[in-house]
């Protein structure tokens, strides 16, 4: 029985590694419970730091085209750096890889909008990861200054979601 579980676990881990590669993900974590005292906790990740940095900064292309036009002036380039959502002190980042949803279900009102006030713990949006809907709470009370992601967009771990001031 133990040998059978071991073989199945090895096949499961290999399938996770292939899923990671095929979907160009950086990390997957899964826990399988077999019984009260028997479980398997697997974390598969790629340790290519250059790719992670590139993927985390990928939501910034919105700022890059605006800076491309006035590239001759040094002052706008400096404002682009300060306009980077990932470096903003009020940035709320994604705690996981997944898909962003701005409302609880299709057709319902979004959780937040620019200019809306939120209390600490209010749901800002949902990140779906492995068919689990994870509500992302406001870390503190404040006003939504900017929504960095779009509904249905894929996000990486650490990617900025909203700017909260």
From TrEMBL:
<comment type="function">
    <text>This protein is a component of the acetyl coenzyme A carboxylase complex; first, biotin carboxylase catalyzes the carboxylation of the carrier protein and then the transcarboxylase transfers the carboxyl group to form malonyl-CoA.</text>
</comment>
<protein>
    <recommendedName>
        <fullName>Biotin carboxyl carrier protein of acetyl-CoA carboxylase</fullName>
    </recommendedName>
</protein>
<dbReference type="InterPro" id="IPR001882">
    <property type="entry name" value="Biotin_BS"/>
</dbReference>
<dbReference type="InterPro" id="IPR000089">
    <property type="entry name" value="Biotin_lipoyl"/>
</dbReference>
<dbReference type="InterPro" id="IPR050709">
    <property type="entry name" value="Biotin_Carboxyl_Carrier/Decarb"/>
</dbReference>
<keyword id="KW-0276">Fatty acid metabolism</keyword>
<dbReference type="InterPro" id="IPR011053">
    <property type="entry name" value="Single_hybrid_motif"/>
</dbReference>
<dbReference type="Pfam" id="PF00364">
    <property type="entry name" value="Biotin_lipoyl"/>
</dbReference>
<keyword id="KW-0444">Lipid biosynthesis</keyword>
<dbReference type="InterPro" id="IPR001249">
    <property type="entry name" value="AcCoA_biotinCC"/>
</dbReference>
<keyword id="KW-0443">Lipid metabolism</keyword>
<feature type="region of interest" description="Disordered">
    <location>
        <begin position="45"/>
        <end position="93"/>
    </location>
</feature>
<feature type="domain" description="Lipoyl-binding">
    <location>
        <begin position="89"/>
        <end position="165"/>
    </location>
</feature>
<feature type="compositionally biased region" description="Low complexity">
    <location>
        <begin position="47"/>
        <end position="78"/>
    </location>
</feature>
<comment type="pathway">
    <text>Lipid metabolism; fatty acid biosynthesis.</text>
</comment>
<keyword id="KW-0275">Fatty acid biosynthesis</keyword>
<dbReference type="GO" id="GO:0006633">
    <property type="term" value="P:fatty acid biosynthetic process"/>
</dbReference>
<keyword id="KW-0092">Biotin</keyword>
<dbReference type="GO" id="GO:0009317">
    <property type="term" value="C:acetyl-CoA carboxylase complex"/>
</dbReference>
<dbReference type="GO" id="GO:0003989">
    <property type="term" value="F:acetyl-CoA carboxylase activity"/>
</dbReference>
């Amino acid at each position: 029985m133990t040998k059978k579980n071991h073989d199945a676990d090895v096949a499961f881990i290999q399938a996770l590694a292939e899923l990671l590669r095929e979907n160009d993900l950086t990390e997957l974590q899964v826990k399988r419970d077999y019984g009260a005292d028997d479980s398997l906790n697997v974390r598969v990740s790629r340790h290519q730091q250059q790719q992670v940095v590139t993927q985390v900064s990928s939501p910034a292309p919105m700022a890059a085209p605006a800076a491309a036009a006035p590239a001759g002036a040094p002052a706008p380039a400096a404002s682009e750096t300060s306009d980077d959502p990932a470096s903003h002190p009020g940035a709320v980042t994604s705690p996981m890889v997944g898909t962003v949803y701005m409302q609880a279900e299709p057709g319902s009102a979004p959780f937040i909008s620019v200019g809306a006030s939120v209390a600490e713990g209010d749901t800002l949006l949902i990140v779906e990861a492995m068919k689990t809907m994870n509500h992302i709470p406001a870390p503190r009370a404040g006003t939504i200054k900017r929504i960095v992601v779009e509904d249905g967009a894929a996000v990486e771990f650490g990617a900025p979601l909203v700017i909260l001031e």
